[in-house]
Amino acid sequence: MDEPVLLTGAGGHVGRTIYEGLKDEYDWRLMYHSQPAEEPDVPYFTGEVQDMDDVSPAMEGVNAVIHLAGDPRREAPWHSVLTNNIDGTHTVYEAAVEHDVEKVVYASSNHAVGAFETDERTPEMYRADDSFRLDGTELPRPGNKYGISKAAGEIIGRYYHDEYDISVCNIRIGNLNEDHPPIDYERGQAMWLSTADCAHIHDCALKADYDYEIVYGISDNDRKYYSLERAKDVLNYKPRDNSAEWDGAEKIV
Amino acid sequence: MDEPVLLTGAGGHVGRTIYEGLKDEYDWRLMYHSQPAEEPDVPYFTGEVQDMDDVSPAMEGVNAVIHLAGDPRREAPWHSVLTNNIDGTHTVYEAAVEHDVEKVVYASSNHAVGAFETDERTPEMYRADDSFRLDGTELPRPGNKYGISKAAGEIIGRYYHDEYDISVCNIRIGNLNEDHPPIDYERGQAMWLSTADCAHIHDCALKADYDYEIVYGISDNDRKYYSLERAKDVLNYKPRDNSAEWDGAEKIV
Lengths: 253, 253
Known about the structure:
The structure is a homodimer.
Chain A: E1 5-8, H1 13-22, E2 28-32, E3 44-46, H2 52-59, E4 64-67, H3 78-98, E5 103-109, H4 145-164, E6 167-173, H5 186-191, H6 195-207, E7 212-217, H7 229-235, E8 246-247, E9 250-251
Parallel strand pairs in A: 1-2, 1-4, 2-3, 4-5, 5-6, 6-7
Antiparallel strand pairs in A: 8-9
Helix pairs in contact in A: 1-6, 2-3, 3-4
C-alpha cells in the first residue's frame, strides 16, 4: 500500500506486535503516549489521544488508522477509561473525518463481552467440546469498566461509519500475553491470540473491504467460545496458530 | 409501593410527565439540575448528575430510580453528552450500588438507533403498511452524539446488572413532544409517545420483574418501526394511544 497508515498506541504490547509483524508492509506513522525509549525508523508522534491538537497532526495524509491507544488495564478506573478510551476514541474518529481517512481498525476487547462468562457457563465454555459461541451480533456484556469503554468505542465507530462512511472494523482482541499459550489456564488457552495471528488479523483488516464489522481476534484454538467465521469470511483471516498444538511452552504439533 | 423512588431529570419534559402522571403512586424523591421554579411537594435535590456528592444524598433509602437526567438536546456537543450523559449515568449506577438500589429504569432514546432510518428505508418505514421493526436485540446505530451517549448508558447498565444484580430496564423513548401526535410529520407520528403512555410505561417498568431489558417506548401507533412486544410481554405495558386515531390536533376515534 502506498498511503500511510497510522498506528495509535504504538508503544503497547499489541502495537509493538503489529508494527514488528507488518513493518515492511505499510508506510507507517506511529503515535505514542510518551517518547519511546527507542527511536522508531518511521515518522512518529507523541501525545494524548483525547487531545485533538495531538492527534490531528498524526493523521495528516493518512489513509487508514489502527487505533489501539488508551488505558489498557483491565481494572482501570472509570475516569481513566472515560477520558483515554471513550473520549480518546471520539477524538481519533473526529480527526479521521477531518483528514478524510477511509478506514479505522479499532482495538476492541474480549472484556466488552466478558460478562458472558457466567458461573453457569464456566469453565465448560473454555473447553473444546463446548459449543457456546459469540459471533459479534450479540449485544455487549462488559466484564469491567475497561470493557464498558471498549463497547462504547464500537458504538462511536458505528456512528462515524453511518454518518461519514468510514469503513470500521472492531476487533475484539483475545489475550496476546505470551509467545506460547498460557499454561494450565483454560480461559487463557481459549482466548489466545498468537503474535503471528495478531499481526495477520490487523493486516487483513487493513486490506479487506467492508462497511462496519465486529470480529473476534483469537487464534484458531480448539478451545474457543468466539466464532471466527466473520473474520474469516469478511477479512480473509487465516489463523495459523492453535493453543491445542502446544504442551506448556513446547509446540507439539 | 412503600419504598421511595428517585426521579432524576425531574425538571425535564419526560420527568414532569412521569411525575404528574404517577404523583400519587409512589413515594417520590426528585432530583433537578437547578432549583425548580415551583417547589415540589416531595423531598427534592439539586445538583450535577455526574457528581457523586450531589447524587448520593438523593439516593439515600431509595429502592428504585428512574434516571432521566442528562443533556437532552439531539444536537448536544460531544463533551456535554460525555460528561452529563455518559459520566452522569455511571455516577447514578455507582450511587445505586452504594445505596443498595434494586432497580434502575433508564431513559434511553430513539436516537440510539436513529441511523437505522436510512435514505433507502425512509419514508416507507414510517408507514403503517411497512413491516420493518426494531425489537431491542439489534446492535445500536446512533444517529447523533446524544444517541451515542444513550447507547453507552445502556451498556453501563448492562455492566451494573451483571456485576451487582441491579434490575435494569432501558426504555428507548420515542417522541413526547405534543399533547397530540405531530401534524403532517410521518416520522413523528411513528415515534409518538402520548403523555398517558409515557407515565404508564414508566409505571410498568417500576412494577415489573426483570433482569436486564431494552424496550421501545412509543404509543401503539399504526405507524411504527419499533416492536412493542417486549414492553408488552415483560413490563405488561398496555398502551392506550395511537397516532392514527388523530386528525391533526383532533382525536377522531
